[in-house]
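Sharing a chain and its predicted structure for anyone who wants a worked example. Both blocks are below, sequence first, tokens second.
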Amino acid sequence: MSGQRGDKVAVVDRPARRQVQKNKGPARFDAKKAAGTSYNIWYGKEEGRPQPREKSATRCVIDSDAGRTQGTADPQAWICFKFAQGKCAIGDQCRNIHCLPAGVFAKELPTGKDCFGRDRFATDREDRGGVGAFEKDPESQRTLYVGGLPARRGLEKALRMQFGEWGKLDRVHIKRDGGAGFVQYAHRASAEFAKIAMAEQSLFGDDMLNVRWADSDPNPRAAKRKRAATIAIVADSIILREDAEMAASIEEDARQAQEIQDEATEASAPRAAQVLELPSAPAGWESRRDPTSGCVYYFNPTSGVSTWVRPKPVTTSVPLSPPVAASALGGLLVGYSDSDSDSDDNDKSNVT
């Protein structure tokens, strides 16, 4: 387990309280009692011999028992087993977690571990007790068998209320012949916690529950529901695979198209440069390119005239004055000659 603790358990912002004053330790080993048998000194049980069931003297109450412990900030910590039983005597000093499994913790537990960190097995025990089996179908792994139900009115409501304290319920079913029922949780971790928390507990005070892992539900509707869920999972897997193949094909097509485009760009680069080069303009004119059409036009900065047609060069020589009329020029010359002749004659007469 890794990540922030807040996404793994329903953390309560207060120190966890001590549920009992002192933990009950391992049972004393009685050699005479255990002679010829395999005896578990921790659970105080002889293997292979049925043990008398006793009503639980403690019970976990989430509203008052849950809280912070030393394990709350530890990403490697698991739910406290004794907390689920209502028997943890060290409270906020516990190295495990005193909260319900929630969030990522409940949804993504390792297949080989339960919410208490215990190893799971491929199949259930014969009595369907123990940690649970990971080879069963997913629905059965989060469904509990509840025996010892009394014949009382409001039985389903009582089951929902008391088992619903440990997590979200998917469904509750009571057998028609009475005496037993099934409680299915949304997450396996919730079922694992509830199995420990409700072991040998009572619904109405004078009864004692027998909580075990449920076997595969023989109900035809349940089998149909599981088959539909399996088909949906398979269909989703096929769709995901086809989507992945299609995405890879689209990506390859895009890559090839980009390569073709790059090659075409490289081949047309010299020609594009040549097209963008402006032709030389006649004298007195400037060649320009129209930004809209891309065509070349010519502009005369002196006169402000522009034209699409290539113009003739503008001459730089000074233009001549308008020609004088020949008749007027002739009269001026004739008058000039006459005056000169008269002046000469007068000079001559004066001399004689």
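Comments welcome. Confidence is low (pLDDT under 50) at residues 1-7, 331-343, 346-352.
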